[in-house]
Amino acid sequence: xxxxxxxxxxxxxxxxxxxxxxxxxxxxxxxxxxxxxxxxxxxxxxxxxxxxxxxxxxxxxxxxxxxxxxxxxxxxxxxxxxxxxxxxxxxxxxxxxxxxxx
Length: 102
What we know:
- It is a single chain.
- The radius of gyration is 17 Å and the shape is elongated.
- The termini are far apart.
- The mean pLDDT is 90.
- Helix 1 packs antiparallel against helix 2 and helix 2 packs antiparallel against helix 3 (70-96).
- The protein has helices at residues 8-37, 44-64, 70-96.
- It is built from 3 helices and no strands.
- The chain has one domain (8-100).
């Protein structure tokens, strides 16, 4: 398996995309939690918009870093995890602390 090296200009783009991934993932989780905790379903579209930004940043990173094959699978798996983790954590919290959840 031969790995194509990342060019210097692509490296900077990859770093920016990585930062955007972290930021968009945090905003998605935060808006998801606030929406559920405060019972404000109007925030959920903004949470999913943050997730869409995350998807775009992952695609951008994959292109800048020349992902292929196994690494593309890892990126898709990561996106699935980012999408489902807040739902799972919320169900776990509701299941273990039903008296504290609105």
